[in-house]
Amino acid sequence: MDPEYFQSHNMCWGTLGTVRPFPNFHAERDVVEIQAALDSKDAVTLVRILTNRTNAQRQAIADAFEELTQKDLAAGLKKALSGDVEVLLLELLMPPLHYEAYRLQQAMVGLGTDENTLLEILCTQSGEKLREINATYKQLFKKDLENELKGETSGDFTKLLVALLNKHDVPSAVQRDIESLCASLNGEKVETGPWITILTSRDSNHLNEVLEGLELQRGHVVDRVLEKRFKGDLQMGLKVLVQCIRNPDLYLARRLVNTKTPILQGVMVSHAEEDLLCIRAAYLKLTGTSLYTALQKQYKGYHLQALLAICRSED
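User: That's the sequence. What structure does it adopt?
Assistant: Structure tokens below.
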């Protein structure tokens, strides 16, 4: 643990990220250390610096590195490192919007589609952020994200993903929304439209009231309703969306339990500067083990040191 971490002026109540601005930051000074570390393949130094700077500071380092050396920092990391630690540090170098666009692209590239990662990003990001990610996706990959989602999925699940991508808050009365959802369940075949529309176009406080009212009226928890009346990917998507409406930190903590490395890194890198402290707390409550301890049981070497630096400490 770098002692200067605790001297950061951003170390204050209300800061929910684990990675905070490094005090007395000098990009040029970091570049000198990084250049020497790349030449000697000193992974310890590379991990120490790149996990202990915010993304904005890492962007400044990358720009200064290119200016001072006429070389690309990412390319240098690829030559000096290998394996999971290389992948993680390269991900840390991506600007946040680029990283989310990259994760979406990776979830759809090749054989098969990672529906869970698509849902994670689309359900946990705000409508404003998703519009920025959408624009970045088009800039990076020269493709329209909405069309890509339509090409990779089908049916009502596609409609849900597209509605999430374009989500925005529409004013409505809680009781009216409760009645609409109840009415959609009355027929032999459920009407999916009201569920997709309402759950993707209201703020979370409103939706929590709607879900509580629906449970009172139906006499079942919403998950049970979804399991009884919906099928396949749409059922899965609505269940994830409801989890994110009610407790996004707990949903993301569940994503970290017994999961594959790309998923764990995706959540940790995406949320390191925003709300990883909340996700850590939810993880501890969910599993009885701190994320910091769990990482030590699953990973090793330089990759472990990088993950622990992002996680920061025991709970």
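The radius of gyration is 22 Å.
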